[in-house]
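User: Reviewer 2 asked us to show a designed sequence for the structure in our supplementary figure. I'm pasting the structure tokens here. Could you produce the per-position amino acids so we can include them in the response letter?
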């Protein structure tokens, strides 16, 4: 059957997490090679190195990550928790409550929840939307 709105939302979020994790893996490998002298240290990698020195999230990662002002250590712990939340949702089905700030796009979650409710109760989605 067709995927429901929440499943579609989860698929999009997984794609964003995978993009971030792939970027982290590739840039960490690149910077290791540059530090060893196997490749030239590009300006992007130099910026990443500087970010590490000052406990900041590298721009290469921040460009594909949810917005955050946390220092690098806290950011990584938060990312691990976010990924575990999504993995749990995939493995065990929807949780009884949702960690909204775990998502890249919480507004997308709200829209998916609204669509799910509207379909379940056979209500036109625009009849129960209100501006808060």
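Assistant: Here is a per-position design you can include in the supplement:
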């Amino acid at each position: 059957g067709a995927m429901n709105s929440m499943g579609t939302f989860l698929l999009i979020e997984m794609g964003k997490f995978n993009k971030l994790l792939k970027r982290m893996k590739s840039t960490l490998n690149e910077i290791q090679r540059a530090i060893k002298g196997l490749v030239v240290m590009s300006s992007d990698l130099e910026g990443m190195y500087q970010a590490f020195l000052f406990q900041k999230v590298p721009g290469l990662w921040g460009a594909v990550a949810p917005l955050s002002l946390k220092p690098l250590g806290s950011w990584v712990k938060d990312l691990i928790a976010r990924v575990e939340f999504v993995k749990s949702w995939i493995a065990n089905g929807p949780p009884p409550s949702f960690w909204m700030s775990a998502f890249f796009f919480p507004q997308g979650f709200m829209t998916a929840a609204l669509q799910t409710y509207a379909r379940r109760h056979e209500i036109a989605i625009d009849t129960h939307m209100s501006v808060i």
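For the response letter, you might also mention the following. The radius of gyration is 19 Å. Helices lie at 5-35, 43-53, 59-62, 72-92, 106-120.
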